[in-house]
Amino acid sequence: MPQDIAINGDNAVALAWKQINPDVCAAYPITPQTIIVEKFAEYVANGEVDTEFVCVESEHSALTLCTSSASAGARTFTATASQGLAYMWEMLPITAAMRVPLIMAVANRAVSGPININNDHGDAMAARDCGWVMLFSENVQEAYDMSLVAPRIAEHIDVQLPCMVNLDGFVLTHAIERMTTVDTQAVREFVGEHRPLYPLLDTKHPVSHGNMDGPDYYYPHKYQSVVAMEKALEVCEGVFADFKRITGREYKLVEEYMCDDAEYVAVILGSSFGTMKATVDRLREKGLKVGCAMPRVFRPWPAEALAKVMAGKKAVVVYDKHLSIGAYGPMFPEVVAAGSDLEQLPKMYNVIYGLGGADATVAGFEKSFEAVVNGTAQKIHYLGVRL
Amino acid sequence: MVMASISDLVVGGRIIKPGNSEQFNTGDWRTYVPVVDQDKCIDCGQCWIYCPDNSVVFREGHMSGFKLTHCKGCGICSKVCPRDAIVMKEE
Amino acid sequence: MTSLAIKDLQKLPVRLTSGHRLCAGCAESIIAKQVMMGSEDDLVVSLSTGCFEVSTTVFPYTSWNVPYVHTAFGNGAATCAGVETAFNALKKKGKIKENVNFINFAGDGATYDIGLQALSGAMERGHRMVYVCLNNEAYMNTGIQRSSATTIGAQTTTSWPGSVSSGKKEFSKDLTAIMVAHNIPYVAQVSPHNWRDTVQKSQKAFACGGPAFINALSPCPRGWRFASDQTIAMAKLGVETCVWPLFEVVNGKYELTGESARIADGKAEKKPVMDWITSQGRYKHLLQDKNAPVIEQMQNEVDRRWNKLIKLTELD
């Protein structure tokens, strides 16, 4: 039966995994993800899952082992953060190109250097071009729910791509929140039996995986992933609808808050969406017509859904928890591109905030968002940096 | 350059026809061709086990010649033959 | 187990077909076929990036008649371990019935250098797999650069002999000893000229029930500078000069095999390293007077390692 429990984000992900009971899990500990594998190892030790659990010697081997395990036909999960994701980077596009639907939780953390263990989106953003489906969560409930929907999306016959479930380090991974579980039987029915495509271990039908392409095949194979990503948008919507039927909880490609009548909209990712909602409430009290939106699905990029949110607005401000040094925050140009076909593109602003765990408070958001409304904002604002 | 149509390709760059490199002939790499003297050959199979390209043909225990579609003409068979039954000739 | 008669080996399934694009006279396919003859059960093959990988799977062609997977360069052992782990999971759930063996082929670059961490991890964790190093003593796929398996004095495109250089400065790393130090059930060195020895050791490796490591000398006509018909002769000479001794280590116990056992017993001649040096163009510069000390160093080191190996075989 569904239960209301108090749980931190990492343990919520581990609980989702336990309920799914994957075939294989291989991971390497890294803060702030470590609790996930520690908790899962406990489930393994107590026989609560059937999973083959492998404590590899590095993240590079973690993703490698998971990729070939998934190619072999096993439902496979892993988790990492920050340097771990960076160390996996070589494998990220390979996993995607091999079209294996493995699931990875990423406890978003700043990337060195300087070394820093706190939350920002530098790790996920550096992985965004690799061909993975990327989901983001606002709170612990969503980290749990996204972990449950991820295999359905990744394993869909029209998608067959790996999927990253992002949850903000410490803010969600270590924070205990109240959430409602899904009954384990319902989880297993929802996720369903794994039906791998061309599994390596079908030795009666030998298939070669991970072959070498010249230019005449490399590009067409990449284009196949483009098609799969486009399909993934529809598939996400379908899976979210199914999930709503069993839980009552509704998810969208782009989550909106007070956007309908808003003249100014902030676009923001992850746990800070909650902070931004509180900011919108305050600004609304001051009579400002503001709203905010979060791309739940970051890859595939939900350009059309975002454009609908942006249509007719006076200004849109993109809050990025990462910085492409020498350019903008990584989400900013993508939001601009999403609105580029609108009859009139709103005025566009970029706020860089929260790097390496720097404070992301309602007060800071309020001041920077109000500057956008007042027309006094700079194109790029480095929130909280003392000059 | 003519790129493949994506509808012809299995996703993931997988190749689902095992061993289809048989259709890729490497025989035209060859400068020297092995020639066997069947009178000297004792069917010992040394040429077979050392051939890097599976190009020594055995039928019912007898060395019956070379698969010239794939033989690259390396000459290993000629050197390992204990009876000097194989010579390399310029093609 | 299959007998070691050629007529019986010919009945085994052809796992690696023709049409691969290895250079003429390359030893890698010869070794791979001999090693795979050691498994009667189905096989899944993984490859680390390298000559063997790029030449056997150029899309849309594969030379593999068995399931095959490649991911990257430095992680062949982890790739193979992933398939083995999936097998264990699916076997436990009753989705797979028959036994399957797992094998990873990798060059010396992918084994001695960039892939050492993944290899060490996989061996320590005890994955049931046979890891085969096709050791041609340099990065041949990228054009003959030195690796930590390259022997002293060898010319490579990153260890040129020159006015102040006599080729590679360092001795090769003793990787086989590092693998023995993992205390895995089976470790061996093989050379393709002695196919009986290679097939037999491979049978033992597949049957050992845990991780096994086979280091295979893989003469490279292109990189070592010898004629393509000399590959097998070169493999034999490596063993006869004790540059590449044949031995196995079964549960920690060393034993010499093949020609190496006969040399140790005094039944065959231990040839001078000079024979090895004069047979290959990569050592040509060592024949200049100024490089005589390098040859001496090489002979001394080969002798030192050989004598140590004999001592190791005397241990219980």
Give the topology, please.
The complex is a heterotrimer of chains A (387), B (91) and C (316).
Chain A: E1 4-8, H1 9-20, E2 24-27, H2 34-45, E3 52-55, H3 59-72, E4 76-80, H4 82-88, H5 91-97, E5 103-108, H6 122-126, E6 133-136, H7 140-155, E7 163-168, E8 176-180, H8 184-191, E9 208-209, H9 215-247, E10 254-257, E11 264-267, H10 272-285, E12 290-295, E13 297-299, H11 303-310, E14 315-320, H12 331-338, E15 347-352, H13 362-374, E16 380-382
Parallel strand pairs in A: 2-3, 2-4, 4-5, 5-7, 6-7, 11-12, 11-14, 14-15, 15-16
Antiparallel strand pairs in A: 1-8, 6-13, 10-12
Helix pairs in contact in A: 1-2, 1-7, 3-4, 7-9, 10-13, 11-12
Chain B: E1 32-36, H1 46-50, E2 56-59, E3 62-66, H2 76-80, E4 86-90
Antiparallel strand pairs in B: 1-4, 2-3
Chain C: H1 6-9, H2 28-36, E1 42-47, H3 51-56, E2 68-70, H4 76-92, E3 100-107, H5 108-113, H6 116-125, E4 130-135, E5 161-162, E6 165-166, H7 175-180, E7 186-190, H8 195-207, E8 212-217, H9 221-224, H10 231-240, E9 247-250, E10 253-256, H11 258-264, H12 273-278, H13 292-313
Parallel strand pairs in C: 1-2, 1-3, 3-4, 4-8, 7-8
Antiparallel strand pairs in C: 5-6, 7-9, 9-10
Using DSSP, what is the number of strands of chain B? 4
Indicate the low-confidence ranges of chain A by residue numbers.
Answer: none
Counting DSSP H or I runs of 4 or more residues, the number of helices of chain A is 13
Distance between the termini of chain A: 54 Å
On the 0 to 100 scale, the average pLDDT of chain A is 98
Do you know the CATH topology of the largest domain in chain A? Rossmann fold
* Share of β-strand residues of chain B: 15-25%
Q: State the shape of chain B.
A: elongated
Radius of gyration of chain B: 17 Å
Give the percentage of residues in beta strands of chain A: 15-25%
The number of helical runs of chain B is 2
Q: Biggest chain pair contact, residues each?
A: A-C, 43 and 48 residues
Task: Give an overview of the whole structure.
The complex is a heterotrimer of chains A (387), B (91) and C (316). With 387 residues, chain A is α/β, with parallel strands linked by helices. The model of chain A has no long low-confidence stretch (mean pLDDT 98). Chain A has helices spanning 9-20, 34-45, 59-72, 82-88, 91-97, 122-126, 140-155, 184-191, 215-247, 272-285, 303-310, 331-338, 362-374, and strands spanning 4-8, 24-27, 52-55, 76-80, 103-108, 133-136, 163-168, 176-180, 208-209, 254-257, 264-267, 290-295, 297-299, 315-320, 347-352, 380-382. Chain A has two domains: 4-247, Thiamin diphosphate (ThDP)-binding fold, Pyr/PP domains (Rossmann fold), CATH 3.40.50; 254-382, Rossmann fold. In chain A, helix 1 (9-20) packs parallel to helix 7 (140-155) and helix 3 (59-72) packs across helix 4. Chain A starts with a strand and ends in a 5-residue tail after the last strand. Chain B is 11% helix and 21% strand. Chain B contains two helices and four strands; from the N terminus they run E-H-E-E-H-E. Chain B has a two-stranded antiparallel ribbon. In chain B, a hairpin with a 2-residue loop joins strand 2 and strand 3. The longest helix of chain B is centred in the middle third of the chain and has 5 residues, at 46-50. The relative contact order of chain B is 0.26. Chain C is an alpha/beta fold. Chain C contains 13 helices and ten strands. Chain C has helices spanning 6-9, 28-36, 51-56, 76-92, 108-113, 116-125, 175-180, 195-207, 221-224, 231-240, 258-264, 273-278, 292-313, and strands at 42-47, 68-70, 100-107, 130-135, 161-162, 165-166, 186-190, 212-217, 247-250, 253-256. An eight-stranded mixed beta sheet of chain C has the order 2-1-3-4-8-7-9-10, with helices on both faces. In chain C, helix 2 crosses helix 8 and helix 4 packs parallel to helix 6 (116-125). The longest helix of chain C is centred in the C-terminal third of the chain and has 22 residues, at 292-313. Chain C is globular and about 65 Å long. The chains are: A alpha/beta (387), B alpha+beta (91), C alpha/beta (316). Chains in contact: A-B, A-C, B-C. The interface between A and C is large, with 43 and 48 residues.
